[in-house]
Amino acid sequence: MNSTDAGRRRPRVVVVGTGFAGYHCLRVLERRLPDADLVAVNPADYMLYVPLLPEVAGGALDPRHVAVPLRTKLPRTRTVLGSVTGIDLTDKTITAVDVEGRRKVLDWDRLVIASGSVTRLLSIPGVAKYAKGFKSIAESIYLRDHVLRQLELAEQSDDPAERGARTTFVVVGAGYTGTELVAQGKELTRHAGQDARWVLIDMAKRVLPNLSERLSGPARQILEKRGIEIRLETSVSEVTRTCARLTDGTEIPTRTVAWCVGVRPDPLVEPLNLPTTKGRLNTDRFLSVPDHPDVFAAGDVAAVPDLTRPGEITPMTAQHAQRQGRVAGINVAASLGVGRRRRYKHHDLGFVVDLGGWEAVANPLHVPLSGVPAKIVARAYHLLAMPANRLRVAFDWVADLLTRRLVVHFGLVPEEGISLAEADGPAKPQDRADGFAGSKAG
Length: 442
Ligand SMILES: Cc1cc2nc3c(=O)[nH]c(=O)nc-3n(C[C@H](O)[C@H](O)[C@H](O)COP(=O)(O)OP(=O)(O)OC[C@H]3O[C@@H](n4cnc5c(N)ncnc54)[C@H](O)[C@@H]3O)c2cc1C
Known about the structure:
Elements: E1 12-16, H1 20-32, E2 37-42, E3 46-48, H2 53-57, E4 67-69, H3 70-73, E5 77-88, E6 93-98, E7 103-107, E8 110-113, E9 117-119, H4 127-130, H5 137-156, H6 160-166, E10 168-172, H7 176-191, E11 197-201, H8 213-225, E12 229-231, E13 236-239, E14 243-246, E15 251-253, E16 256-259, E17 263-265, E18 276-277, E19 280-282, E20 288-289, E21 292-297, E22 302-303, H9 318-335, E23 352-354, E24 360-362, E25 369-370, H10 371-385, H11 390-402
Parallel strand pairs: 1-2, 1-8, 2-5, 8-21, 10-11, 10-16, 11-12, 19-22
Antiparallel strand pairs: 3-4, 5-6, 6-7, 9-17, 13-14, 14-15, 18-19, 20-21, 23-24, 24-25
């Protein structure tokens, strides 16, 4: 179907991706441009509050509660359920493939690219096939189901070696994603009544290498006190169905390797041949793409100058993506004659890392905290930052505190498992061009 309509009078704004940046951009556009035609293209009908995914994998939160429904929160936006596969800057059109494989062409007067990032898959043998990704609701549920099933299969086995392998879980990457996942995973297996072995691996010299050193020490202590093994300055050289081989020669028998080594920008912007920084599309401080005043970009996919650190670009965090989305919305409206445009400047407010139980580390306004005070800050931060479902998330947390966690798996994972490359639909051809593959956020 071709959705370009020559007689259209109302300006059309198309937003690619409804994650942190796209969602908050559309919220602003709905208020500021009551007469514009607003279209969002996204593979799912929700905005995913990604920072709480580790708690979904750990079974503390209902998956639906981290999904913000677009239908009710963005009533004026038409959502096309699908993925943008091409952008034509000359004809001002995008091509999208909807969830049933149908191709659509949509024209735009203003385009906002907010398609985020994909899991970074280094070309290490076996990773794409055997490692588990962790960036979407589907992947979190697969992982939880897989972990619980391994525990049950271990109980049924008479072979001690097999039992050991099935109850060993390896998480690669000690950034905030891997650190939170290993903490929540250990909690999950504890709730399931098993003393499982959890191993956290990273090339870096410390856990949380990209965050303040004052968070790393307490985080490491908390994890080690729970019995989680931490192996630093080490990486994985191969993953097979039954083990993880490390670069220091160690072989860890396991059926579970979770891949949390970070992300790279969405490859959608590569064919545009526009200037990029580390694969992210360059913008000016107004989030506009240079020489293309009708095109804006925000969030992980965009290289936005960090005005608080001259010469640097803003990091890939939800904190920036959300605020950049809002500024992109303001500036799109300004470009259509509504309001004045604004430059993007945001001082980092610090970071929170929830480690399950009563533990967390945080540095709100760069004051380092750990234990219960950090936990309170972490939870308050998420409740404030979540665009919806706050009450439901709060109820889940209270229920988890007062009642036994519901440890069930839904049998969603086929016997052979689900590989990183196929977890969220087939990767695009360009994902594989350089020896990398990508797994999409949902
Ligand atoms: C497990 C995990 C935990 C995290 N925890 C934190 C945290 O605690 N604090 C923090 O600040 N940051 C955290 N982050 C990082 C944070 O989630 C990202 O920086 C943030 O989501 C970026 O927002 P975005 O809008 O750029 O992209 P996203 O939120 O990823 O949204 C991109 C959207 O675009 C869609 N999309 C992608 N390609 C296309 C396409 N071709 N066509 C249409 N739609 C497309 C995606 O499906 C998605 O809905 C975490 C990330 C992960 C994976």
